[in-house]
């Protein structure tokens, strides 16, 4: 009698190997997608945070060390230098802040068209936040008395959306600070 030797795999063995490979592949690919999503979200959030910190820092420094406070405005044409509660109808949300720097130039910070920008007296416009990000901002101005220094509150909310291959990631971070104009005695 001749002995039959088995040189191949049975159909059941091949199906078992294929099922194991599909399960392992699914686990690996879902882990990879999860890692890429969290990496993308971290990148978007860090970019928003970096832009917001830069904008708040630049405005705070320039306002705090300005030679003179030129005023706040809702429309960019009428500026109020008196920020006591009785002045200017006690408006609380302004779109523009204007200061005079020590080089004599006037700088205007503007919150318009979902952007925040500074414009120097030479007409140079620079965006303080990446223009692709949606920015909501406004300023408040308060004073204890007409002789007291003005305090400017800056409110900034930045939203960014990044459409990646695996998901759409969105970051929305609010920023706020208060700045007292140090050289207000020279008004």
Summarize, please.
Helices cover 29% and strands 33% of the residues. The protein has one helix spanning 11-64; strands at residues 68-73, 96-100, 106-112, 115-119, 125-127, 134-142, 151-163, 168-180.
Structure, explained:
- This protein is an alpha+beta fold and 187 residues long.
- The protein has one domain.
- Helix content is 29%, strand content 33%.
- The longest helix has 54 residues, at 11-64.
- The termini are far apart.
Secondary-structure blueprint of this entry?
Layout: H1 11-64, E1 68-73, E2 96-100, E3 106-112, E4 115-119, E5 125-127, E6 134-142, E7 151-163, E8 168-180
Antiparallel strand pairs: 1-2, 2-3, 3-4, 4-5, 6-7, 7-8
* Sequence of secondary-structure elements: HEEEEEEEE
Structural class: alpha+beta
Largest sheet: 5 strands, antiparallel
Low-confidence stretches: none
Distance between the termini: 116 Å
Provide mean pLDDT, rounded: 83
Query: What is Rg?
Result: 29 Å
> What oligomeric state do the depicted chains represent?
single chain
SS strand fraction: 25-35%
Strand order across the biggest sheet?
1-2-3-4-5
* Number of domain modules: 1
Residue share in helix: 25-40%
Backbone shape:
rod-shaped
* Helix count, DSSP H or I runs of 4 or more residues: 1
Number of strands: 8
């Amino acid at each position: 009698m001749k002995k039959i030797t088995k040189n191949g795999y049975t159909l059941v063995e091949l199906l078992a190997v294929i099922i194991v490979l599909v399960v392992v592949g699914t686990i690996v690919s879902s882990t990879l997608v999860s890692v890429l999503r969290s990496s993308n979200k971290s990148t978007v959030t860090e970019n928003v945070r970096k832009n917001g910190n830069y904008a708040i820092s630049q405005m705070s420094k320039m306002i705090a060390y300005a030679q003179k406070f030129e005023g706040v405005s809702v429309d960019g044409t009428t500026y109020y230098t008196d920020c006591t509660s009785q002045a200017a109808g006690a408006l609380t949300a302004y779109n523009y802040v204007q200061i005079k720097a020590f080089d004599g130039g006037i700088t205007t910070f503007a919150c318009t068209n979902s952007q925040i920008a500074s414009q120097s007296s030479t007409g140079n416009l620079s965006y303080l936040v990446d223009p692709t990000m949606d920015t909501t901002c406004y300023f408040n101005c308060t004073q204890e008395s007409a002789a007291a220094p003005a305090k400017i509150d800056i409110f900034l909310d930045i939203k960014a959306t990044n459409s990646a291959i695996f998901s759409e990631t969105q970051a929305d971070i609010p920023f706020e600070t208060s700045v007292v104009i140090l050289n207000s005695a020279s008004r």
